[in-house]
User: What shape does this take?
Amino acid sequence: MESVTLYRAPTTVTDADAIADWLDARIEATVSVRDRFLSLHGDPALAETFAKARVLSPYDRETGNTMLGIVRYEERALESPERAGGVIYDGLAIQRALHERIPESERSLDHLHVPLLDRVVGTWGDHDGRWHKRVNVLGQPAIVSVPGLYEAPAKPEQYYKEQQKHALLSGGAPPREVLENEVEGEFLVEDDPRTTDALKGYVLQACHYLDTGEPFCDEETCRLHNPHRQPGVVAAQLREPEFCPKHAERYRP
Assistant: This one.
């Protein structure tokens, strides 16, 4: 791999330039940053592609709703991404669609593209017959979902109880500070100031996979680990050491 291009997610708190600087100190490839992928490479057909990739039910493998109103919603979401939300998309279908929109001269595996997306993506689990939200979908391009960081790894059970209680009393989601004070355990929530730091490891996972073919690390304290629960994300991405001994040799700055 000779180069990595990150794409900004301007409606999120993620600092793509900070991630690129961190990555540049740890890999040999040239790292660059571009503006939002969906703005740079969007086209009139992309809205319908997103509509077709919509997950309709957690337990239904089939996706897609291309009714006119849904396609219009996706058009508005592409033009004004701050209006998007509340939808899960088939991550592999979105990955294929974005791959087709990478300039042909940049599609080789020597040049990894990593769009930071403000959409929630998931993959189907044949083992349990349901969709699972993901933080990243590895490959070319490698999708890194910013809201997936908050939603995919499970939070402590008490978090969901407090969320429901607050919704019943006030009709809305409780502020982050309330949840952090009332729920034991460590977790990230929407617009968390630790988002950029946490996503660094997920971007590196994409680079590592393309370079080595190894998806994740089994060591729970390594940035290349892919935990299923929020406390594991905090331990892997926000605590020392950054890497297990094996991967520290490769990625120590």
